[in-house]
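Input sequence (507 aa), recorded before submission:
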Amino acid sequence: MKHFFTLGFLLLALTVLPLSAQEHLLNMDSTVTTKHEVTIKGQRIRYTATAGTQPVWDENGKPIAGLFYTYYERSDVKDLTSRPLVISFNGGPGSGSVWMHIAYTGPRLLQIDEEGYPVQPYGIRENPYSILDVADIVYVNPVNTGLSRASDTLDKDAVSKKFFGVNADIKYLAEWINTFVSRESRWASPKYLIGESYGTSRVSGLALELQNAQWMYLNGVILVSPTELGIERKGPVEMALRLPYYAATAWYHNVLDPELQQKDLTAMLPEVEDFTINELIPAIAKGWSLDEQKKNEIAARMARYSGLSEKVILQHNLDVPTSFFWKELLRDQGYTVGRLDSRYLGIDRQEAGERPDYAPELTSWLHSFTPAINLYIKEELKYNTDIKYNMFGPVRPWDNSNDNTGDNLRQAMAQNPNLYVMTQSGYYDGACDYFNAKYSMWQLDPSGKMKDRISWKGYRSGHMMYLRQEDLVTANEDIRAFIRKTLPKANQPAKYQLSGKRHLGSK
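Predicted structure, token format:
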């Protein structure tokens, strides 16, 4: 059985131990390092890839979990003090880091077509658009995602309390990052967090937790398809903000009226956004007191922008749920549209109903990503284990109470004049839609004093905009530009300055 002891892992045959025993078979502190090359933007770059586990410790210094990570470091950089480090998280909660790792920023790219659909044979190729030319990257898998697991010394309640909640997640990951940065001697490096989906809540909270509890200051936070970040928007605001996403999806599927359809997407959307903010929110806020004629006028405008009928919109009292939209938009053609990426089509058992039977985009993605990450870890990173890679791991119930992650990010920015934020959104994302992302950015700093440090980018794809090759190129280039822009000049002080002197007695 000596082959079960390779690379520092103590693994017993799964024919002997039950699957539940896998959780305590992973060595919580070990690494495997391999050497590679990749051509990025025409430049051949050598780098090392370190795949391994690093412990999470409790307050007594006892290891209570092992987090699986992959760290890419460019080999020809001698001085790491000016070399940026990007720390990457995906979301869920419960999702492994696989998505951005092998489809977006990393040096290897899974085999898909130019629009993101699966192709066979499965495999991995070079990513010529990776950001590894400008920054080193570490992809982190929280507990129960990827190959990360909690210790078997913890019972189920203890695992849930320590790891499965908005604030518990932020606390232990900040400590893990501190250890990683120390081990890799990256304290002097400019540091960036990037999170996708729920990972945006995670990195927004981490920005403040790293400052306040670990005394680690960042240069940038990148929010890919952000959540609501704990920013309140219930009622009329929540109901209305969906409409621009509906319009984008209807435009993509060519079901808008000819006047709107002939316009380009980004030329058409400002009209919808203006209507949403200035007319739709006030109209919904009036409820039954809204004049019947005005209600019909509003429904007609919504129908024009959404591709839905006035009748359906009035039946919903101007509040059309996203799940119904995905089912209704192409109902007469026999298709549903995807939640995370509404370019994708699904086929339900019945055309009738209130919501789709399944998410066509997610099944498509799992089709291509699952074989690719398992092959890549074993064959190229040389990391051998019988532990299952959790694309989506068991982290429920998740404690969503006291989600102040948006305000956490605002506080981190206020405390750190060097901290910038960039948001990236896909127009066809119905889960974390682009207009809600804009709204979050507006509310993140209602004073407007830090608005010059907040930016937003839109792409013609969905939740994982980088699956469309054209957006993969553009989105990575936007990250490069963001990093270069936010690197402070040598010896430049991080401080606020008044625009001019204020004289005594002035108002």
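Checked by second reader. The domain at 2-231+367-486 is CATH 3.40.50.1820 (Rossmann fold).
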